[in-house]
Give the backbone structure.
Amino acid sequence: MKCSEFLQELTNYLDGVIDDRTKSELEDHLAWCHNCYVVCDTTKKTIEIYRDSRLYELPEDLRSRLRSAIVSKCHSRKKAGPEGV
Amino acid sequence: MGTIQPKVVEPVSDELALVQAAKGGDVSAFEELVRRYDRNVFRIAQHITQNREDAEDVVQDAFLKAYGNLNQFQGQSKFYTWLVRIAVNEALMKLRRRRPERTVSLDEEVKTDEDSLPREVADWSPNPEQQYNQAELRDILTRTIQGLPASFRTVFVLRDVEGLSTEETAQALDLSIPAVKSRLLRARLQLRERLSRYFQKREGADGKLNRESGDGNQ
């Protein structure tokens, strides 16, 4: 397996959606190709860091303000009837 | 090497009942749906628009649009996937208004495979995120993801940050499954490469943020 072929399968491999035969070929490749091993390992870390970082959390005060605004508009649209929705 | 653990998705067993009640005019049922998904919609919107005020507008507009169109929701997908589709469209509209000089589309031309081939293969420190304090890390992650094209960023956020499946992401973005997979691969590889500038092992270096060399190049 070439490095470019490995990369094409990287997403399926990391997501665990791959058949056993391809998985075993990929792991054979990883065993001797240090560059692909590093790319695979650091790609996995990239995903985990973004997933854990909780960027852009919605602060509670803003959250309630937005929710109140949404609910109040839903009520007024309801009163206006289907045409107002 | 292990696989990425799927993100745990909250049970949605009562969701259809809430949607049905909301369709019947029960605003408190709709409020419960807002409470359930407002954080996700906000995160997605801010990732796409990269602007907090726009993200706030998107949260309001997306939920109001969902409320106004509940009758069109047939229950063939999860309510959340349907809502994400609305939110992504609203967010892209904001982005287009803010950056009219650049065409923003989920269908934008993706570059050739060679552009995604890794050039930096230096290994990272064992716990790279611990090299930086929280504010620095957020800054690095934000600026790094901002450098991605909107089409890559959106797929990455839905799949890897919000934990939608490939099929749900395809449904929410109206893309084919191969298109989602191709964008996801490129997004992951580009982010990895950009983060390598900050997280790679450095002999004798203290690992501090180097804003000059580490910035995105777009």
User: Anything to note?
Assistant: Chain A has a mean pLDDT of 89. Helices of chain A lie at 3-15, 20-32, 34-53, 60-80.
